[in-house]
Structures
1.
Amino acid sequence: MLENNKWRLKFHLMPPEGWLNDPNGLCQFRGEYHVFFQHTPGNPEGGDKYWGHYTSSDLIHWNYAGDKLAPVDDVDINGVYSGSALIWNDKMYLYYTGNVKEKSKDPTIPFVRRSNTVLVSSEDGIHFGEKQCLMTREDYPADISGDVRDPKVMTGGEIGIEDGAFYMLLGARSQADVGEAMLYRSENLTDWELASRITTAEKFGYMWECPDAFMKEGLKFLSVSPQGVEREGLNYQNIYQSGYFPLAGSFDGDYTLGDFQEWDKGFDFYAPQTFQDEKGRRILIGWIGMPDAPQHKNPTVELGWQHALTVPREITYINGRLYQNPVAEMETLRGKKNELSMGKTSKPMEAFDMEVQVEKNADLQLILSDGLTISYDRERKIFSLRFEEDKNMGQGRIERSAYVEQLDHVRLLVDTSCLELYLNHGETVFTTRFYTQDARNYIQLKKGVEKAEYWEMTSFVVDKNISL
Ligand code: FRU
């Protein structure tokens, strides 16, 4: 675990060192939360992917349990790619994509991907058994390309199919370059058959990564991370997206996908996954990062690590939309409450949680650490994050905006070099990395604040007790 290292975060999970991307295998098993993640040990710029492993009983005290799945077998020699966990009959089942790049017979193609769907199971959530390859390239439909990955496994009941079977979503790219999610069905967790293929009426990107599905208030939702969607006004400002479609009908029969809603409007958010915990909450964790966006730099690379995961966010459904809010446990990290009045600047802190009540009929303007302007233009109904280019706090990040019909409340989770912003109690969310010289932050209330309260935040407690 890197220590005394600038820009390390206090209440976000990070790689112990090296590179992190997608959250994987999220679940709660016998009371214990498990957060696995794509990890490249020893290389902050990425490389072969392992599954790193954190556990926690309360989402605040964490143990780093080491790299659990390593790309050392024929089924996954080029990477233990993303996947999910299913808890069934007091056992943990992990499904993932074994990335294998096979030599191509065609000299114009560098390699052919096999994209194996692999299962490993565990009696205790700590030690894992043999890898079992369940499906490989030839098992997927003939019109699908080599890009098939990220199995998300759930019970039929979780997605409104009451047949006692299990279902697996796989993200895919067709030979015709259209993104889709394939749904497989199984009665025994190992034999899988294609049940349906889900995509939009009109092409929405060439590849869908990290599919997920769940229900809220009796309604069905399909979450995906599409690639190849063009920017449209304030929508799809990043190179790749992640969001959800409401699904009418059934996942395994006739269906219609509603309008796609982005989960997060910031610079750094991708490949989220959800799970239901033992309290019945639907919790989402995303990757604070963005692939293939080299113009947005992370100077932590020089310090041996890169990227982090969002705080766990509880999902609720209100008026046609899914809302996301930090799980209530995060409030236990708050120190004593302070108030800050309009026009004032807070003391410098590494990490704080702030709630702002916005003045009616006014524009809002907050400035973080003198380099990031957070504002709402009431007339245009646009909320924006804008980095001052000459201060270099954004490291290449400039502006992200969202249309917000009415703004009443803003919550800022500021953690050293990471900001999560929750508008109107989770209606719209922005996540971004930023880098100040001394890794300390302060906030100025410039315009439109009726009331602001903040709490300095203490850290997650992270132990390292590696069990292999
Ligand atoms: C998404 C993703 C997944 C893949 C993994 C590899 O960020 O590309 O589709 O399984 O990362 O690390």
Note: The mean pLDDT is 97.
2.
Amino acid sequence: MEVFRELEPLREALRAARAEGRDIALVPTMGALHAGHISLVEAARRPGSSVVASIFVNPRQFGASEDLSRYPRKEVSDLAMLADAGCDIVWLPPVEVMYPAGFATNVSVAGVSERLDGAARPGHFDGVATVVTKLFNQVQPTRAYFGEKDFQQLAVIRAMARDLDLTRPHVDAIIGVPTVREADGLAMSSRNRYLSDVQRAAAAALPRAMQAAVAAIEGGAEVAATLAALEAELLAAGFASVDYAALADAASLAPLAALGEAPARLLVAARIGGTRLIDNMAVNAAA
Ligand code: AMP
């Protein structure tokens, strides 16, 4: 496994891989890797492909009051996990390589970026769209892998790739990978490390209450009442606040007052102590 911290040597290695007929798959991450990230690397691995994982804690997607400075950094164990998973290349740019002095461009996807996490975290998805555009241009993958854990992020990237014609020739496919969960259902996240033992135990209420809400909505329960009950259950379980609990169209993330024919998604962001957890689940229309 090769590790690059400068753009030109990375591009040289990618040119060499392409010259050998290998296609390039990209897995963007912010490091502090867990089994969820590794599932993306495993999905990306194919005979004849080179897998590039990027590790970059992107300052532009953190708000002023967010956890950029305390975000976990685990470079040594991340590299060991990526090597074990069969990753070929790690792209580890320092901030000044990604954003040299004078960097002035912003990529912003209207609509899908503005709701839910976009409303709760102003500027967050602009930061994501900007860095992912750069990663696509730097690596020029034919496939790029993103977790459904960050479902709105996946929707923003799909919209951006379509709008900016990033899907050809550079990226043929944006591939969403199902969320990997702990034994008690909590979605794996680098931020779970912030939780105390008591908070960690309480956090299992999030997937449990969401699953109950999915079943209720699929069974015909009224959406607004179900979402209110979900919120109350989280607060009773020890969550400090709920940023949002919403049923949304799975493609546009526009809010849905009732389940229709189109695929829908239940999305929740809630805080436990100082930690903000997000999760989402598919909601299927009645057969
Ligand atoms: P992050 O390092 O949090 O930016 O995540 C990097 C990528 O891994 C994103 O595409 C995430 O959606 C994905 N990811 C994070 N957690 C999980 C998980 N539990 N299951 C699957 N994918 C995940």
Note: The pocket of adenosine monophosphate is lined by residues 29-30, 36-37, 39-40, 146-147, 149-150, 177, 179-180, 187-190 (CB under 6 Å).
